[in-house]
Write a structure and sequence with these properties.
four-stranded antiparallel sheet, rod-shaped, alpha+beta
Length: 182
């Protein structure tokens, strides 16, 4: 069994949710595959028929700005935004690849490293999917517990009200038996 090049956890951190899809940025993928971002994008454009819109899409300016604000200027994501009248940085909006697009990338890049990295990325996507399912199940169970507790709270509140009523009732007047004072 070969030792993985990259840990699944480090790849999971690079998976984003954009337009309701789990995706990875072209810059992050290029870094993982050990190629320049422009080389990765050129290879994709030469084989564009392999990348329909559900495999890969380009971010809008707003999406790019949102990612830049979210991640600030740390690590490879410092180049997310496009540069206008500045040196360095990107001159175009970034592309993102869905799980299927990432799978297709290994055939386009066609290197041993690409195959190894692709296997690691697929494992990360699978692990993320399993984690999300687990979270959904836990959220469902938590909601059930909350409903039960709310029901118990109502019953306990009713018991306390009944006890308070019993405690607040005045003692009945006692009739005096025997001779009274005059």
């Amino acid at each position: 069994m070969t030792h993985p090049l990259i840990s699944t956890e480090s790849i999971e951190k690079k998976i984003l949710i954009v337009r309701g899809h789990k995706v990875m940025l072209d810059t992050d993928l290029a870094e993982l595959y050990g190629v320049e971002t422009k080389m990765l994008n050129r290879a994709v454009k030469r084989n564009i028929d392999r990348f329909p819109r559900d495999f890969m899409f380009q971010l809008t300016q707003q999406e790019s700005d949102n990612l830049r604000c979210h991640f600030g200027t740390s690590n490879s994501r410092s180049q997310i935004g496009t540069s206008k009248n500045m040196r360095g940085g990107r001159r175009y909006l970034p592309y993102v690849f869905t799980e299927q697009g990432v799978a297709m990338l290994s055939s386009v890049l066609n290197s041993k490293r690409a195959i190894q990295v692709n296997i690691a990325i697929m494992r990360a996507f699978v692990k993320l999917r399993e984690t999300l399912l687990l979270h959904k199940e836990l959220a469902k169970k938590l909601a059930e517990l909350e409903r039960k507790v709310e029901g118990h709270d109502h019953h306990i509140h009713s018991l306390f009200e009944a006890i308070r009523q019993l405690m607040s009732q005045p003692e009945p007047r006692r009739r005096h038996i025997g001779f009274g004072k005059n």
